[in-house]
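Human: I wish I could look at a protein chain and see how it folds. This is the protein in question:
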Amino acid sequence: MEWGTLAATLGGGLIAIAGTVLADRLRTRQEHRRGIRERRREVYTEFIAAAGVAHTELRRLAQSGAGTVGLEEASRAALTDARVYEVRERLFLDASARIAGTGQTMFERLRALRRTVAAGAGISTSAFHDVYHPYLDAVWAYREAVRAELEGPTLAPSDFGWSAWDGRERCPHCAEGGTGGAGALPGGRVPEGGLTEGGLPEGRLSEGRAPLPGRARRDDVP
């Protein structure tokens, strides 16, 4: 075999091997990115679902009023039983910086709602609404951030016929400026339809909860 033919054969073989190695690396990298994306999508959904379960329980406690025994413990259990703390830690591990930040804001406003409910604020009181609507606003900010990262279509309040995300314009209590306004039920209670999760009409996340062993005795976990 002539040297030129041998060199050409070896060169072709090396090019083929290099091409195969490069293709394998690209495929591995794509699979890694796809795995990260799917893992993030899962924890993003799990976090907002856990917060929704806790929010529903806090609303139930606020609906029951100050007569409920053990509001402090019950309101803490609303977050721990919904696994909000646990999923939040997963969010910090897997989320992008932007989603972790918006998730933390949402979490802090959920804790503010918990403290207000623990203090005995009923669902039709100004104290409740002063923290409830900022929480709804944070929920939608989180949703927008997640949709942007996952390259989903953007949403605006106008898509739902609203002017803002916080739900005040659709809240019977806030529309009347106080308890017992239009749409209020006997005893000054605000109808459930005016305070649904995320401000969506009659929309509610599942209320099923998975118990978490050893309820935490604190609002936050460092």
Summary: The chain has a mean pLDDT of 77.
